[in-house]
Please model this.
Amino acid sequence: MKTWNARIRHAGHKLLVLTLIAVAMPASAESYYVATTGDDANPGSTGAPFKTIQKGLAALSSGDILVIRDGTYSGAANALAGLPNGASGVYITIMAENEGGVIVTGGLSMTSQNQYLVFKGLRFQDANGRAILGHHIKFLRNEFKGGCASGNCVNTSVGSNDYHNTADILFEDNWFHGPGGRYNLLVYNANRVVVRRAVIRHDGGWTDAKGDPEAGINFYNSSNCSAQNVIALDNTLSYHTWQGAIYNVYNSASPNATNNNSWYGNVILNGRGSGLILDGNGAQTGHLVQDLVSWDVDYGLNLGTGSSNVTGMTIDRVTTGRTTSTSTAYGIVQWASWSGSITNAIITNVNADFVGLSGTYFDSYGNATTSTGTGRVTYDPRSNGLRYLTRIEDGEALKTAGTGGQIGAQIAARIGSPETLYGETGWNANTGTSLWPFPFEARIKKEMCADAGVTRGFCSNASLTNYIMDYLGNGNPYGTEVIPIYAPRNLRVR
Model:
């Protein structure tokens, strides 16, 4: 192999190189401001902001930042639509000056051409829902509230029937709630979507005439998607067609597969239907579940319904069951065709630990029907290490009863390096940074519990972390939330 190492000898060549470098380098990033008290005739500086979001968007180029000041932004002039695009390494950022202080009711609508965009600290609230398309788009620390009352519509969607290029999307530290929409978050016909540290609660307010299913988060005809440290809780209302907190579907009518999806360190708590459910009418393969709590639901894991055919699935370290024994709930089941491995699961206080499949190295206790299998134990989990739903205590029997370590979930650290997309370095790594107290939980509670009458579940507790940790009545081993302060990248005062 030859190594190219020619020297440029002529001044003209040097000029060409300098010109190419100048073209490749982005211009100095600018920051523009929008305020409800501004004027669109202004230059958009910190002292003379624009009035509307649309005016601010029109000023942006790659690498620029749009800073939105506190207030509610309504109407077409304040829609996040017709968005400009950034470029690789020079994202455009659209952010709240004070995170949580900006409510956008004008809507969020994207095209398949949108790319390299970041949205930070906003509160999206409208009855039409949000439609996300494009690629290399990041949502950091936003509220997504509300959706439509009927029809085939959702709170927030990623992807569509019409385009097949939606990919490389990140949701990190966001929460989805409010009445309306079949799903809180639907990932459809899209790939490489990471949902990291989301809080999801289905607040009803949706119906239709067809009986289409409802769920919290759904990876639907989407592959290489991942849910990391997601909390889906308090889904206890009387819904129209509720399926479960986490849904994963393959429908052969769409050309996009549903393969190689992963769920790391998730908590499903206090709900109806299934915790995690796989559904569809064709083949799925390569899925991974690692460290899952699915507690006080009807089916901890439902790994196959309809005519689905799931192969090559790996499930390791699960804690599922009921706080009090019941004959109407089940542990890990499948009603179609499923193959894979299930190891290190706690299943307790349900009618049957396994239905239609089997596991190894599991703890089955207090169940009406108990399976046999390699490595089975019958410990009372709450007396042998399960004091808090998200971890097994050191020195207790369950800590060393499994294959390769403990039986039961261990959800103690944040999964995924900050702001990483699928496949980037550290995107699914155990960072070693404590997950608890849960990041931004004060803001989460303030916004998710703001509406009159919304008092169920964690809204009646001191905090999200306290609600989860004290669920078994053993208190909260973690302190209060430490709120990080983020300095906006490339922010320049004009």
Observations:
- The CA atoms of residues 221 and 448 lie 29 Å apart.
- The chain is about 5% helix and 35% strand.
